[in-house]
Design goal:
Elements (H helix, E strand, L loop, with lengths): L2 H10 L16 E2 L14 E8 L11 E8 L4 E9 L7 H7 L3 E8 H12 L3 E6 L3 H14 L6 E3 L9 H10 L3 H7 L7 H9 L3 H10 L10 H4 L3 H8 L3 E3 L5 E6 L1 E8 L10 H20 L5 H32 L19 H12 L8 H27 L7 H26 L1
Antiparallel strand pairs: 1-5, 2-3, 2-6, 3-4, 4-5, 5-7, 6-10, 8-9
Helix pairs in contact: 4-5, 7-8, 11-12, 11-15, 12-13, 12-15, 14-15
């Protein structure tokens, strides 16, 4: 996309909803320095932090942050939105997966943006005024002008380090002399990135499961309050802790950096679903336990083969798909949180053997002599899984593995153990 095309994209964009951690919306707006108005008197300029609530769609689960600028003298009202990318790009899914996706700043008139959230997205918006000095207002606007230059519109998006919430945070930190970063870096959070992601993703079980299973110990590392600000709601909550700051760095004793909270769009938050790991454990584990119990009572080899084939197919698909996905993430994606996932102790790409075994049993159920050799191989593979389960339990308990594994161990690990028991039960059944 050329600079001219980018300018048209930002200037004439029509409301689009894009995927990603933040709501990505572009409305008719401004995106180049020569298009932006210049306030004559910064005493008449107000800055507002707009915190957009969560929505039910996957891309809206984490909220959004917008910086609003109002010139009360010239009567213009613009919003700066760091959540724009070209969704029409055919390579978008691959770029997003690889971690090589460029986002852009868009500047739009505020009221159409608010109307979109109210009428289309049906998401809440809370507005707070930023208490800044005249010099800070002027410096912040100059930073926004520089950011709006065509050569500065794009930035490389990162879910946790550089997104729609961290961009305005960094601009504020710069005009306040670095006080925000100094203050919040020294404060250690009691919550991890994983816990924040789990909480935000609860309304969508598959987003919750996908993000949690796919992410390594990067999400479990100790973080500071500064790091927490990747979430729009935490940016707002933490900025409320900061007093207003004078040009010389003096902290105000009676005023906060954010004041005058106003709910300008009132919409309910999406309802949370149950824990998907519990559903997986009950569904997959239930099938495996039922098969294990039934094998002890059946006399028909064909029926036993059908039950075992179904159990192998279901368990194999779960384990093999995740093993393939996690391995592909490690090899293909540049996101650090998708590398060296400890869940690969439990799910392997080679587990497609379980799927093949299940299909063979279902198709050849009346010819048990045809699948005995394959069954011995499956028992051996299951025993390797059992060994890996024991190892990862020891590593997790000893603290050598930092990744939070309780839910994965309780679901996938437990199901693997039951499947191994099922295979052993079938082997002893045939011997008897």
């Amino acid at each position: 996309m050329t600079q001219g095309e980018l300018k048209k994209f930002v200037l004439r964009g029509i409301a689009h909803l894009f995927g990603g951690l933040c709501l990505l919306i572009s409305v008719a707006g401004l995106g180049a320095t020569e298009e932006l108005p210049s306030p004559a008197d910064f005493n008449q300029v107000d800055y507002y932090l707009l915190t957009v609530g969560r929505g039910p769609r996957p891309e809206a689960l984490f909220g959004h942050t917008i910086l609003r600028v109002v010139d009360n003298q010239s009567h213009w009202d613009l919003s700066f939105n760091w959540g724009i990318f070209d969704f029409a790009d055919p390579a978008f899914p691959w770029k997003f997966y690889r971690g090589d996706l460029n986002y852009a700043l868009a500047i739009a008139e505020t009221q159409p943006l608010i109307d979109h959230y109210r009428r289309v997205e049906k998401r809440s918006i809370i507005q707070e005024r930023l208490v800044l000095t005249v010099n800070q207002k002027r410096a912040l606007y100059q930073r926004l002008l520089d950011n709006a230059k065509p050569e500065n519109l794009f930035y490389q998006y990162h879910q946790f380090l550089d997104n729609c919430a961290t961009r305005p945070r960094d601009h504020l930190n710069a005009v306040l002399g670095g006080v925000l970063r100094q203050f919040f870096t020294a404060r250690i959070s009691t919550v991890t990135r994983r816990q924040y992601i789990q909480d935000a993703a609860r309304p969508s079980w598959w987003v919750y499961l996908g993000l949690d299973m796919s992410s390594n110990d990067f999400l479990d590392a100790t973080i500071s309050n500064w790091d927490e600000m990747f979430l729009p709601i935490r940016l707002r909550e933490l900025l409320f802790l900061v007093p207003a700051i004078a040009d010389d760095g003096t902290l105000s004793k009676d005023r906060k950096l954010l004041e005058g909270a106003e709910l300008i769009v009132d919409m309910p938050e999406p309802r949370a679903d149950g824990n998907p790991y519990f559903v997986v454990t009950m569904a997959l584990g239930g099938i495996l336990v039922a098969t294990l119990l039934a094998l002890g009572r059946l006399s028909s080899e064909a029926t036993a083969a059908t039950l075992l084939g179904g159990a192998s197919l279901v368990y194999g698909l779960w384990s093999a798909i995740w093993g393939t996905v996690l391995t592909s993430n490690w090899v293909l994606s540049d996101y650090v949180m998708l590398k060296h996932n400890a869940a690969l102790w439990l799910v392997w790409p080679i587990d497609w053997i379980f799927v093949v075994f299940g299909i063979v049993l279902l198709v050849k159920r009346s010819r048990p002599d045809r699948w005995q050799r394959l069954a011995r191989g499956v028992v051996f593979l299951s025993s390797l899984h059992l060994t890996a389960l024991a190892v990862i339990l020891v590593l997790s308990q000893s603290g050598l593995v930092k990744q939070t594994m309780q839910s994965v161990l309780a679901s996938t690990g437990l199901c693997g153990l039951v499947y191994y028991g099922t295979m052993i039960r079938q082997a002893t059944r045939r011997e008897s």
